[in-house]
Design a protein that fits this description.
Elements (H helix, E strand, L loop, with lengths): L9 H20 L3 H27 L5 H12 L5 E4 L5 H4 L7 E2 L2 H9 L5 E5 L10 E6 L8 H5 L2 E6 L11
Parallel strand pairs: 1-2, 1-3
Antiparallel strand pairs: 3-5, 4-5
């Protein structure tokens, strides 16, 4: 828990908890269905205000797809020559003018690299070594201290493929 970031807007968090707690105490003082209904409604309303207005926008900073897509586009300029290997990753944020080639088998990707159609690929870290083509990691999706090894293995990478790439290695 110590690795997690602090709760956003903690003052608002405490105020919303106080509202929920006050309505529960009020319902318990003179217990009837009307007070319980108001208590549940107020607690739910306070929770939704905090979650949707404060917590979710603050958590957006920890989503890696959009910054990774911006990094990909800044590195390669356009989506020409870019393919996807066993992931759709940040496809929405790349906003390609047309469909990007998708590969599920290393042989299909190697053929596309051999013909010069693909020079770059977005791949999950866990699938990187199954590609079977010379590669160089160019960009990685951000990782955070609270993420497990499983989550880090699911991060996407931008990899340069082909004879001009160096042997596979991690760039951190």
């Amino acid at each position: 828990m110590a690795k997690l970031p602090a709760a956003p807007d903690r003052t608002v968090f405490v105020v919303m908890w106080a509202i929920a707690l006050a309505t529960v105490i009020n319902a318990l003082r003179k217990f009837n269905s009307e007070r319980v209904t108001i208590s549940i409604g107020a607690a739910a309303y306070a929770a939704m205000i905090y979650i949707y207005i404060f917590a979710m926008p603050a958590a957006e900073a920890y989503r890696g797809e959009k910054p990774f897509a911006a990094e990909v586009l800044s590195r390669i300029g356009s989506t020409a020559g870019l393919g996807l290997y066993r992931t759709s990753g940040p496809l929405f944020y790349l906003d390609p003018p047309g469909p990007l080639p998708e590969f599920d088998r290393p042989k299909d990707l190697a053929n596309a690299v051999g013909t010069g159609k693909i020079q770059w690929v977005i791949v999950r870290r866990r699938d990187m070594y199954s590609i079977g083509v010379q590669m160089q990691i160019v960009a990685t999706e951000a990782s955070y201290p609270w993420e497990s090894d499983y989550q880090r293995r699911n991060k996407v990478l931008l990899v340069r493929l082909g004879p001009s790439a160096t042997v596979a290695g991690e760039a951190r």
